[in-house]
Structure formats: C-alpha cells, structure tokens
Design goal:
alpha/beta; Collagenase (Catalytic Domain); 11 helices; 7 strands; globular; binds zinc ion
Length: 309
C-alpha cells in the first residue's frame, strides 16, 4: 500500500514539470501514426513515456551510449501497447538493455530468444534482434528500433504535408494491401517492430506462461481468443510449410508465443492491411488492446485527403 502511495506521488511529481521539448519528436516517431491518436491518448502516452523513462533501469551495451532519443523512442513504443490497458502491466520489466545493433550473446538459459537465422550454425551463441525474459530485462537492438522509427517519421511528415495541402509524391503510404511475405524472406521486413514484439512477450508473460495468451478480460474473450488464434496459427504454419506467401511474418510459426508477438507488431504497424487480410485476428487483438488502429488510421487518412482537396 505504502509503496503504491509513494509511487503514485512520484509519478505526479514527475508530471508537475513539463516534458522536455526535445522529447516530443522522439515520442512521435516511437509509435506508428502518432497524429491518428486522439488527443487524450496522446497526452496519456506522454505521461506514460515519462514514467517509463524514469522508472526503468537503462543500460547501453556493446559500447552504445544511451541518449534521450533512444530512451524515449523505446518508451513510446512500449507504452503504446498498454495505452488503453494499464501502465502497470509494464511494471515487471525493470531493466532495458540496448545494444547498438543485433548482438551476439551467449545462451544464458533464456526463456525466449529471437533467433536471427537458424542456418548460421557458425555463430557462437545466436544473433538476436531482441529478447524477453520472465522478470528479466528486455534486450533490444537500437539499429532495429531506429529503422522503424524512421519509417514512422517519414509517414508522419508525409501526412502532415498532405494535410497542409502540399503535393505528395507517389510513394505516399496508402493501404499496402496484398504485400505478402515469401518463404525465406528473412526476419527483416520494413515494418518489423522489435519494441512491440518484445513487449508483447512481456504482456504474454503476465500470467506466468508464454503461450501466446496474455491475461484477458473474461471468459468470452478467452473463448474467442483461443478459437481465432488456434486457427490463424495453424493457417500460417500450413501456408509456410507449403511455401505459400503469407501476409504475417512466418517467424510467427515458431510457437504460439511468437505468433502473438508477430501479430501484435502487424496490428500496430499495418492495421488496415491486417483487418483486411485477417479480420478475425484483427478483432481479437482490437478487443484485447482496446484500440482500433485501423479505424483511426483510416479516419486520419480521410482527414488528410479532405484537407488536400
Ligand atoms: Zn519473440
């Protein structure tokens, strides 16, 4: 009780002073479609980011010097997941370790490791994009976090220019639609979001099992979740086994825990495409996260189109 009281007081004190101005762009680039968030969600995101940055133990590894950009970008991406849930769902994560790039670490009996390429047996240990441990640190590669943050920035600048009535090049991000993955296309797709991925594992672990099912609201949600996730996981595995192109990252075939993490990345990064390609999967994720990123992306795009004419 006392701990909670002090924590609440500390958080209030933190918000009493304004957020450093320099943080704002990093916060915006840390999430997809920042402008599409309702204003109440944006200010909640800012509060969560400040708590997250202050409360976690941050460590730059492999010679990486941590900056506000690194901390705020990662914090924003993590906090987006719990924006409509509960900030304290991230409380079990106490440390964030950031490496400059994909890193090679000896196996330390990890619960979950992201194996970069199983066909590289010459690697000592295994190259990892990020990893999540139960009650352990979240480990990330800044190179991969930064790559997707650059895309968020590009999208944001384009949509803002469009709303301002400026001409946009042909590359404006519309619904990408049927862009499918081919077998062996590797872990690196443009919109792989390692922060969403690792923190999805953290949510999954809240009930102490890494089975692709985070704690859900009620029996109805569990029922729908189990049915849809089982079918979708099986479908992805079948497609992958038969060499059929898939919309979801085949990395999700590893196990149900990875499937949930991959689905979460796609849910936030390509919501409209996911809603079209896998409407039931989209619906259970929407009910869990209590967010409808496809609808807000659509509304934002419609607003931009209206402003552009
Ligand atoms: Zn994973």
């Amino acid at each position: 009780m006392l701990f909670r009281y002090f924590r609440r007081r500390r958080r209030q004190q933190l918000l009493a002073a304004p957020m450093p101005l320099a943080w704002q762009p990093y916060l915006e680039w840390g999430v997809p479609d920042y402008d599409a968030l309702p204003s109440v969600a944006r200010s909640r995101l800012a509060s969560y980011v400040r708590w997250f940055v202050a409360e976690k133990h941050w460590e730059g590894c492999g010679g990486l010097e941590l900056t506000d950009e690194i901390r705020v970008t990662i914090a924003a991406g993590a906090c987006l997941l719990v924006l409509e849930l509960d900030f304290d769902m991230l409380s079990r994560v106490q440390s964030i370790l950031v490496y400059p790039t994909e890193y090679v670490a000896p196996d330390r009996g990890l619960l979950i490791t992201e194996v970069e390429d199983e066909d590289e047996p010459w690697l000592e240990g295994s190259a990892r994009l990020g990893e999540a441990w139960y009650r352990g640190p979240v480990v990330l590669s800044w190179q991969d976090v930064e790559r997707v943050a650059r895309l968020h920035r590009r999208d944001l600048e384009r949509s803002r220019a469009e709303r301002a009535g400026q001409t946009i090049g042909a590359n404006h991000r519309g619904p990408v639609g049927r862009q499918k993955r081919k077998r062996g296309s590797g872990r690196h797709s443009e919109r792989d979001n390692v922060v969403a991925h690792e923190f999805a594992h953290q949510l999954d672990m809240l009930d102490r099992t890494v089975d692709g099912t985070p704690p859900l609201a009620d029996r109805r949600q569990y029922k729908a979740w189990t049915r849809v996730m089982t079918v979708e996981f099986q479908q992805l595995s079948d497609d992958f086994d038969h060499g059929r192109p898939t919309f979801l990252d085949p990395y999700g075939t590893t196990n149900p825990g990875e499937f949930f993490a991959v689905a979460t990345e796609t849910f936030f990064e390509q919501p409209r495409e996911l809603a079209t390609e896998h409407p039931e999967l989209y619906a259970v994720l929407r009910d869990f996260y209590r967010q409808d990123p496809a609808a807000r992306q659509e509304a934002c795009a419609a607003g931009a189109r209206a402003a552009g004419h």
